[in-house]
Design brief:
This protein has 7 helices and 10 strands. The strands form 3 sheets. A 5-stranded parallel sheet has the order 2-1-6-5-8. Helix 1 links the parallel strand 1 and strand 2. Helix 3 packs across helix 4 and helix 6 crosses helix 7.
Length: about 240
C-alpha cells in the first residue's frame, strides 16, 4: 500500500518508520510512506501557505492553492481514497481501518493546521475523518493514528493474523482479559479455566468476559452488539429487538 501525507510538518511522521512492527512493515515494503509539504508548492518570495479568513476572525486559514497543487502532484494508484483529518469528520472506527487496508492501493491523508483550512479543500477528500470530539493543533497526530491502524492490518505486518480477529472492536465486543506467567502474582491468580486445557471452556469464558467487559465499559457498543443479534451476558435481561 502507498501512503501519501500532505502536511506542513512532514517530520512528524518519520518516527513511524522505526515504530516496531509498523516500522518493519515499511522496511519490508509492505507499505510505502511518502511525505508532501504544501509549502513546496506555494508561490511568491515567502511561499505563503496561510492567510486571514474572509469576514474576519481569529487565526490564519490554510490556503487552497498549495494543498491542491501538492495533491495533484502525487502519483495516482487505484483504488485510492483521500482522507481529510478534521474534528468535523465521521468518528474513526476499526471497520474503517479494515476497509481501507483491504480495498485500497493508496491512501492520501490531508492534514490541516493553524485555525483551519479553506473550505474548498474539502473538495479534494473522499472522506472526512475525526479521532474524537476534541481539537488538536493539526491533523498530523490523527493521520499517524490512521497510518498505524491501517498498516498493522496489512498481511504480513503482524505475525499472527488470528490475533487481529480476537482484539477489541473486531466484532463490537472489547477483548477478553489476557494473562501470562506467573500463575499467581501478589495474590492475583490466573483464572483456573485458562489453565485447564479445556479449549471449549476457555472459549466460553472468554466470550462471557468480552460481553461483561463491553457492557460495563462501553454500553454503547454493547447495545449495538445486542441489536446486531449478539447474545447477552448470562445475567442480562432479554435483549432488545434486533434492528430491521
Amino acid at each position: 500500500m502507498r501512503l501519501d501525507v500532505v502536511s506542513l510538518f512532514p517530520e512528524a511522521f518519520t518516527p513511524l518508520l522505526n515504530l516496531g512492527v509498523i516500522g518493519r512493515a515499511f522496511a519490508a515494503g509492505l507499505a510505502e510512506l511518502h511525505l508532501h509539504n504544501p509549502r513546496d508548492h506555494a508561490v511568491g518570495r515567502y511561499r505563503k501557505v496561510d492567510d486571514q479568513p474572509y469576514g474576519g476572525g481569529a487565526g490564519m486559514v490554510l490556503k487552497p492553492e498549495p494543498v491542491f497543487a501538492a495533491v495533484e502532484a502525487i502519483p495516482r494508484l487505484e483504488p485510492r481514497r483521500v482522507l481529510l483529518m478534521t474534528p468535523q469528520g465521521r468518528p474513526l472506527q476499526q471497520v474503517d481501518l479494515r476497509r481501507w487496508a483491504s480495498s485500497c492501493a493508496q491512501l492520501v491523508l490531508l492534514c490541516g493546521h493553524y485555525e483551519g483550512f479553506d473550505e474548498r479543500i474539502r473538495a479534494l477528500a473522499d472522506e472526512e475523518v475525526s479521532i474524537g470530539d476534541f481539537v488538536l493543533t493539526g491533523g498530523e497526530l490523527p493521520a499517524a493514528i490512521v497510518i498505524n491502524g491501517v498498516v498493522r492490518l496489512l498481511p504480513g505486518t503482524v505475525g499472527s493474523a488470528a490475533s487481529l480477529e480476537e482484539e477489541s472492536h473486531s466484532a463490537l465486543l472489547l477483548e477478553h482479559p489476557q494473562y501470562t506467567r506467573p500463575a499467581d502474582f501478589r495474590g492475583a491468580a490466573v483464572p483456573e479455566v485458562l489453565r485447564s486445557g479445556d479449549h471449549a471452556a476457555i472459549a466460553r469464558w472468554r466470550l462471557e468476559q468480552q460481553r461483561r467487559r463491553t457492557r460495563e465499559r462501553r454500553p454503547d457498543l454493547y447495545d449495538r452488539w445486542l441489536r446486531s443479534g449478539g447474545q447477552p451476558a448470562p445475567e442480562d435481561p432479554s435483549p432488545p429487538a434486533a434492528d430491521p
